[in-house]
Amino acid sequence: MCAKDVKYRKIEEDIIEAIKEGRLRPGDRIDSESVLKQRYGVSTITVRRAFSDLISQGYLNGVQGVGTFVAKKQMIRALTSISFSEELLEQKYVIDLYVDAIEEIIDKRISEALDIAPEQSVIRVKRVRMANEDPVAYHISYIDSRILSLKQAQEIYERKSFYKTLDSIGRKPTWAVENYSVRDVTDAHITELMGIPKGNSAFFIKRTAYNDEDKVVEYSETYFHKDWYSVNVTIKI
Questions:
Q1: How far apart are CA 131 and CA 72, in angstroms?
Q2: CB 129 within 8 A of CB 137
């Protein structure tokens, strides 16, 4: 191995060690190219090669014109549970929930999604899912008020879980259909709660959840922070 290879690998090893030991945490900015050039006595090309390798390995993220940062650990959904929070717990995240609003509304579009009469009122639950104290998703769930009343929905504040609240009244869905896309987040309130710039893109998921009798229980729309979220799908042939 030539001296040049040793130098860029030394930069990589030092950064990885700092991340593993907690001296560098997700979101922390890495020292600039000029600082690292001086510290290690190397060229710009050598530093950029180290950065490129660490970005490709998932240790770092580069933001054009801003800098290079320690990558956040992504929440990788295997789609093994109907509950997002349960999957987070399985991956050893510390989770929390911020309830943004619980309201009773009438909305024809949502009534159609829930397969109920247009005049039937619906409970809308807006909430932010937190993982390791960072916002990872903004959920908007809709449910027939005859299934979950406005009074019953207040338990979500204490239980910190929409599905645990449904489970407590025997109404938790058992299966769901999800539609995935990418959408710009234009609602300033949502972007503020998620900590992203207005107009930034996010994974957008529409879910229709059913009970054992194949009746619609919940319709939801969720924005997932793209820096935190990915999906693994296993296909057997």
A1: 11
A2: yes
